[in-house]
Amino acid sequence: MPLSKWKIEASGDNKTEELLSKEFCINPIISQILVNRGSDIEAARRYLHPSLNDLQQPFLMKDMRQGVARLLKAIHDKEKIIIYGDYDADGITSVVILFKFIKEITPFYRLLYTR
């Protein structure tokens, strides 16, 4: 098996690299990569220790409101729902999360909005 040899360009900002390494207890190579990608301390914190507050607003995605409305209508009308996703790690994870979410809200949604 051939060994790969990575070449990492020097960032030119050794001070920030050292600060990131110490602040987050990460390998200097990782801090160098972060600096090369334009990260400062706050950007590195959001990247290494993300929170829900750092997520983008999902309704900024095209047609999200229409998709949510259609899903709620299907739940309300007791239609069958097919969930389709990629067959990779994030695709499978996304399908499971959506399935569990729909399963959890369905009884409550029907209880609230069924006349």
What would you say about this model in short?
With 115 residues, the protein is an all-alpha fold. Helix content is 57%, strand content 0%. Helix 1 (14-24) packs across helix 2 and helix 1 runs parallel beside helix 3 (41-48).
Helix count equals 5
The largest β sheet comes out as:
none
Please compute the radius of gyration using only Cα atoms: 22 Å
Question: What's the overall average pLDDT, rounded?
Answer: 88
N- to C-terminal distance: 66 Å
- Approximately how much beta-strand content do the residues carry? under 5%
Please state the structural category. Answer: mainly alpha
Helix content: 55-70%
* Shape descriptor: elongated
Order of helices and strands: HHHHH
Give unreliable regions as ranges.
none
Q: Count the E strands.
A: 0
Explain the layout of strands and helices.
Layout: H1 14-24, H2 28-36, H3 41-48, H4 64-76, H5 89-113
Descriptive terms for the model:
5 helices; mainly alpha; 115 residues; single chain
